[in-house]
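Show me any protein, fold above all:
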Amino acid sequence: MSIVIHSDSQSKELKDFILESLADAEYEIEDLSVNSKATNIAEITLEVTKYVQEHEGTKAIVIDKYGIAPFNFANKQKNIIAATVSDEQSAKMTHRHNNTNVIVLGSEVVGKLNALNCVKAFLKAGYDAGRHQIRVDMLNSLC
């Protein structure tokens, strides 16, 4: 599974913690901030969503201070379904029921271990499809 992660400068510590914690996992993780020219959270979010749009099946993590702006920007992009999460159950269920491909974390909202557990739950979750596909199709048709 391909995963991309990006954060604003205020959330770099949490992003780095997640990257270090997942280093031994079987995921292919790309830190988009390494070569990024983005200077604000809107540009950061657009870089992430563009990557997800161009690489089908990729899951993404965006981190900023409160997790609100990236959620709003991401959900305005075609074929992007984003959720701001702060607990494991929400992180898991948003992918299972909504086929969410981007989660947003607020570094001032969630602690390091909680954020890591949210990421792990999101990455492990499969998509249930079935009756949920109607909603996913509707969400994807909005942009």
Summary: The mean pLDDT is 92. The helical segments are 12-21, 41-54, 69-74, 88-98, 112-124, 132-141.
